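User: Can you help me understand a structure? I only have the sequence.
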Amino acid sequence: MGARSRRSLRAQAAVPVMQLAHGGRKASTLRPWEGRGSVPESAGGWPTIGPSAEAFGSYDAPRAMDADEIAAVPAAFAAAARRGGRGHPGAGAHLGQRLGQAW
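Assistant: Let's start by predicting it. Here is the structure, written out as tokens:
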């Protein structure tokens, strides 16, 4: 965040925070006004991962994370919060229902 943005936020008594999220099986999707579905890799999309290979509706099925990958998620979120939280008074984590249940 630049100095101008910080000054503007302070002038409005606003508090900037960072939100960490994992899109999981709903990542790499079309913009709502472009329809529903996954963005093909040929159009800039990417393969998704999730705690299971269960697809979200008609979207492409994600690659299921293995137990070691799922176990590594809390430390990865903590490391991201440390990196991105510099200069921010707070951070939040949007874990989603299924990923949160995996913990």
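Now, to help you interpret it: The CA atoms of residues 25 and 56 lie 6 Å apart. The chain is about 30% helix and 15% strand. Let me know which part you'd like to focus on.
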